[in-house]
Structures are given as C-alpha cells and as structure tokens.
Amino acid sequence: MKLLEGKRAAIFGVANERSIAWAISEAFHAEGAELAFTFAGEVLEKRVRPLAEGIGSILPCDVTKDEEVEKVFATLKQEWGGIEILIHAIAFANKEDLSNPYVQTSRAGFHLAMDVSAYSLVALARHAAPLMEGRKGSILTLTYMGAEKVIPNYNVMGVAKAALEASVRYLAHDLGPKGIRVNAISAGPLRTLAAAGISDFKTMLHHVAERAPLKRNIDAAEVGKTALYLCSDWGSAVTGEVLHVDAGYNIMGM
Ligand code: NAD
Description:
binds nicotinamide-adenine-dinucleotide, Rossmann fold, 254 residues, globular, 7-stranded parallel sheet, alpha/beta
C-alpha cells in the first residue's frame, strides 16, 4: 500500500513547475494522494491548470480575500467531505522591501508581508480543521532560516517567517487535541518565482554550497520527500516542529 493512499491534500502555493509546492505534489501523487490545487490570479491559473490536469482539481484562492478562502473550503467539503493534508507554501513581500535596508520597511509593506506570508496559515488552518476532524490531519508550511538569523535582503520576509514559525507552535497546541499536526519545513534556497524577488539570491546559493556541511544546495524533490514523512503516518508523533532541509547549513557558526 502506498504511503498516502486514501489521503486527500489541499495544496496552496503552486505557481509553476519550479514551485516547492509542486515538488511536494509530485511526491504526494506518487504515494497515492488525491490532490486539489489553488492558484492566485488569472496569470497563474494558466500555469497551474496544465500541471494539475490529470492529477487534481484547481480552485481560485487569493489568501488576502476571506471570501475566496471560505469558498475553497466549502468546495472541498462538498466534493471530498473532508481532507487529511493541507500544504501552505505561500509568501509575498514588495520587491523594494527585499532590497532596501529593513529599517526602511513601510507600514503597508510590513502588513502585506505578514498578511500573505504568516496570517494566511492561521486562516487556512482555521478553515481546514473542521474538515480534518477525526482524520489525523496534517498541516505543513514552508519557512526559511531568515526567521532565525539575519540574511541580507530577506528583511521583512524574515520577520514574517518568524511569525509563521511561532504560529506553527501555537496552531500545533490548539489543534493537537483534535489529532491535527502542524509543522514547517525550513528549506535551503531554491530557484523559484518567489526567490527571484530576493536581491542577490545567487550569492545565497553560492554561500550555502560553500559552507553547508553537505557542500551543496538542496533540490525541491528533497523537500517533497521530507513533506511525505511529515504528512504521512511516518511523522505521526511529530507536531509543532520546524525541520531544516538545508544540507545542514543552519548548524554552522563559522
Ligand atoms: P513560488 O513562487 O513557486 O510559490 C509562492 C506561492 O505563493 C505562489 O504560488 C504564489 O501564487 C503564492 N502566493 C503569493 N501571494 C499569494 C496570495 N495573496 N494568495 C495566494 N497565494 C499567493 O515560490 P516557492 O519558493 O516555491 O515558495 C513557496 C514557499 O516556500 C514560500 O513560503 C517561500 O517563502 C518558501 N521558501 C522558499 C525558499 C526558496 O529558496 N525558494 C526557501 C525556503 C522557503
């Protein structure tokens, strides 16, 4: 029997075939999960629809719009009755806030990054929880080391990821009694659409390859495999964790 046979996963955050959420979807599909994808805006629909074709349904959802979030979960309830897995692989900040000094972050830029990148997990978890009751649900989000240490140019996104990681722990506490686990993967840098917004991203990749214990960068499929562990029965006693998938980079002091 496959690892995720009979499990249904709602995947938020596929933009294209480079997306971390797509690598997770491929790993889940190979292990028998049923998938539903969301997309944010018409431009991305054109990218996501052909990817999803044949392996899952697609639904619109901009996480800053409460009515779209509500509609996705109402549709999932109607079509599936419930879900076992929620993947949250969503982040956004204004481009200037990922290049200017952090001290220049505007109130509006701070709110936007927090809303899309951190609060959205809380909103999605609140809607997913009733659909997961009695099903050993698993919620997984994506974070980055910029939450823990200063990474030049990551700026407001690092602060949003710190809030996201704290939310993982609070949500794990709230939802644990319902049998729902909440975890995060802290991935090493990967060339994706979101990463293209971070100034000097190439330097991050070189730096990791030089300094990480494994002397290389990671690939998205490695995040997919770890997601499989965390969201399947293999991770049944793991909740509230932030698991680094970064070739060991985060352990280094010098
Ligand atoms: P990506 O661009 O493929 O995915 C980001 C997703 O966020 C996109 O699908 C986009 O549509 C979605 N999104 C942005 N604003 C949204 C909104 N208002 N409503 C709904 N969706 C919205 O890039 P990715 O690198 O795969 O990013 C996925 C997650 O992984 C993000 O949380 C990112 O911070 C995190 N992460 C990325 C890296 C990296 O180096 N690429 C490293 C660690 C963590």
